[in-house]
């Protein structure tokens, strides 16, 4: 039983397109959930408990690798703090904060700019420019995202109003773009070691904010919605999504990985059709086709 599982995981670990698609699927669910529990669970508390819980889940499995890799990780402690801050703490808490104030349409529109932030940081830090095919793929997938979100009516774009929540989500994307750009510079360690240290750093950095929320009287509701929400965010958009994303970036690089972020609105709209009973329309199919084509073009060598 163990040998087939090990073989399956070994195969999956070398499939960057599938890994990056899975990370976008899990993060799409996180956006839907973050909006659904706005006002039910305080954002900093949700972020802190998310990473603390993910740490507890991973630590027993990651411990042997962590002990072996600890010297390398400690030697790169500045980089690890930066990865924890941008990819785990700042990105996460700003997203949850932003979803307290903005609509899902605005959040999805802003999420579609994620690959541009990755490209910007890659250019500023390392002089890595987008190739023509990468730029073409990002533009095509972005057009597909807008087609889905605006339901084929691009005139609706002029009616979208932005607020402080949108600025927070833009800040989250700015931070995650930096995380994606510097990921290839990470120390050569086991993936579990890297994500475990990232979750620990994220939880520690968010602890003061969660304490301030608690002192101000903002407490999560003690019910099944809170329990189910915390279970989801600890496992899928935390442990699994980051393992998949980090491995995908390691295999094909940040600029080729970034267009997969455009799959998040695609998965979000599919969730709405399947879970909420929304009727699929022609613009869904057109948008899906453009996003998938754009991702395929941009991810090629």
UniProtKB/TrEMBL annotation:
Compartments reported by the entry: Cell membrane
GO terms for cellular component: plasma membrane
High-level lineage: Bacteria, Pseudomonadati, Pseudomonadota, Alphaproteobacteria, Hyphomicrobiales
Residues annotated as transmembrane: 44-63, 75-97, 109-128, 135-152, 164-182, 194-212, 224-245, 257-276, 282-299
Membrane topology value: Multi-pass membrane protein
SUPFAM superfamilies listed in its UniProt record: Multidrug resistance efflux transporter EmrE
Pfam families named among the record's database cross-references: EamA
Name under which the protein is recorded: DMT family transporter
Keywords tagged on the record: Cell membrane, Membrane, Transmembrane, Transmembrane helix
Coiled-coil segments on the chain, per record: none
Domain EamA, first and last residues per copy: 17-149, 164-298
Keyword DNA-binding among UniProt keywords: no
InterPro entries xrefs: Diverse_Substrate_Transporter, EamA_dom, EmrE-like
